[in-house]
Structure to design on (441 residues):
């Protein structure tokens, strides 16, 4: 019938950008990032990480519609930073956190397994 | 401005680790990370599952599509799934099952000749790759000579009567739970906040022994206990608390508000990960971390958008009267 293909939920269509950046025309240091084929998983961790940055004045995300597979992240910063800088920093910090988590988890499992055998 | 970082350093303590169950505590991070990892384990860690079935002959009581659906739901050992390609992205083949990068072929050919009803199970599936087999068959190979109970007989697909026959070719492909739940490696993945329970000892001592017992019994789960020696109320299992607030209501009703205070620690999570057997539970968590990392990498801004913005920034500065 007319149901959309299931893969449309996670495959970015050809010619479409994964991340679109749009500067706010009315507010200084404010911008909107549109992430294609992403959801709460990415939106929420980005928002929470941005909240840890004191130069970020506002960070929020929304899923405009459950059948439009994109999230919109809005960021406003003070003059010490820019939305793009804050966005990049958040991604870098989260990646570092996950690297650390992976190392810790592996170390703990090895230790636990050593105890077991 | 360059060397700032607001990174966190999460800690992990493992409580229980088995092939299919993992229980651990995750601390010093927030709910967004815990939830992202949970969501990824359920919907985005890849596994293998039967995706295409060609039926040669089927005289069983179940129709072809019913059988194809049942075959799809059989978990398959997927340790290699992370390295494999999705059939859609595989340029070495057209995903017809004879490609080492993206698909595995199974054959099934059973005919009932005896008077007894014949069970067709996942053990009858013959794989083209001996390392990629249905999960229960792998378990059977591992503990041969164990018990001869029903659970070593594989997963039932259909029952055949005398004269009935089933012959088919099935192709297993890599996929994720977001596409179809058959590809999800997770049976359940949950996390809970660790509760912090403080009993107001002074107020508690104003209660009689019967009142104490009555208050303890008001909790639907066994969180508190009466110490038989000191006759004091003690917390035996804070994690049994389900945030039902029954004990708080009971304290209120007894005219002793503030008898107990219960908080949930915002940065401390107790995870329970259960696997279908397709991937080890601990590996599922590690894969989830890897996938989250690659997702983050994918949403990094491309160089040309950054450059375009720099030029725009200069232009904007000029338009506002130049200089800063």
């Amino acid at each position: 019938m007319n149901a959309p293909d299931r893969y449309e939920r996670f495959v970015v269509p050809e010619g479409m950008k994964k991340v679109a950046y749009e500067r706010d025309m009315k507010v200084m240091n404010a911008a909107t990032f549109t992430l294609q084929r992403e959801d709460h998983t990415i939106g929420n961790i980005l928002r929470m990480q941005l909240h840890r940055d004191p130069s970020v004045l506002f960070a929020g995300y929304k899923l405009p519609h459950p059948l439009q597979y994109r999230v919109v992240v809005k960021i406003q910063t003070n003059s010490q930073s820019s939305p793009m800088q804050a966005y990049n920093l958040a991604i870098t910090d989260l990646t570092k956190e996950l690297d650390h988590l992976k190392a810790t988890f592996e170390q703990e499992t090895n230790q636990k397994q050593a105890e077991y055998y | 401005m360059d060397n700032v970082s607001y990174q966190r350093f999460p800690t992990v303590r493992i409580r229980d680790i088995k092939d299919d169950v993992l229980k651990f505590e995750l601390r010093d991070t927030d709910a967004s990370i815990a939830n992202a990892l949970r969501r990824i384990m359920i919907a985005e860690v890849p596994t293998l599952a039967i995706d295409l079935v060609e039926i040669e002959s089927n005289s069983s009581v179940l129709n072809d599509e019913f059988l194809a659906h049942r075959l799809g739901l059989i978990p398959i050992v997927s340790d290699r799934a992370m390295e494999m390609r999705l059939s859609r992205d595989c340029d070495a083949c057209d995903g017809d099952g004879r490609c080492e990068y993206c698909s595995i072929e199974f054959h099934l050919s059973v005919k009932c000749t005896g008077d007894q009803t014949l069970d067709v199970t996942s053990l009858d599936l013959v794989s083209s790759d001996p390392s990629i087999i249905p999960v229960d068959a792998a378990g059977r190979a591992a503990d041969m000579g164990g018990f001869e109970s029903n659970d070593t007989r594989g997963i039932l697909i259909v029952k055949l009567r005398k004269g009935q026959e089933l012959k088919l070719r099935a192709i297993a492909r890599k996929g994720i739970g977001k596409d179809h739940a058959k590809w999800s490696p997770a049976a359940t993945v949950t996390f809970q906040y660790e509760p912090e329970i403080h009993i107001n000892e002074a107020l508690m001592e104003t209660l009689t022994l019967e009142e104490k017992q009555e208050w303890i019994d008001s909790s639907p789960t066994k969180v508190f206990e009466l110490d038989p020696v000191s006759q004091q109320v003690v917390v035996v299992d804070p994690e049994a608390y389900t945030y039902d607030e029954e004990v708080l209501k009971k304290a209120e009703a007894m005219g002793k508000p503030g008898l107990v205070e219960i908080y949930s620690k915002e940065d401390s999570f107790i995870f329970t990960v259960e696997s279908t057997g397709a991937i080890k539970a601990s590996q599922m968590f590690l894969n989830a971390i890897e996938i989250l990392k690659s997702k983050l990498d994918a949403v990094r801004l491309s160089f040309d958008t950054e450059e375009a913005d720099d030029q725009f920034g200069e232009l904007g500065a000029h338009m506002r009267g130049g200089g800063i």
Summary: Chain B has eight helices and twelve strands. Chain B has a mean pLDDT of 88. The helical segments of chain B are 31-43, 64-72, 135-142, 201-204, 209-217, 246-253, 281-298, 303-319. Chain B touches chain A through 47 residues (CB under 8 Å).
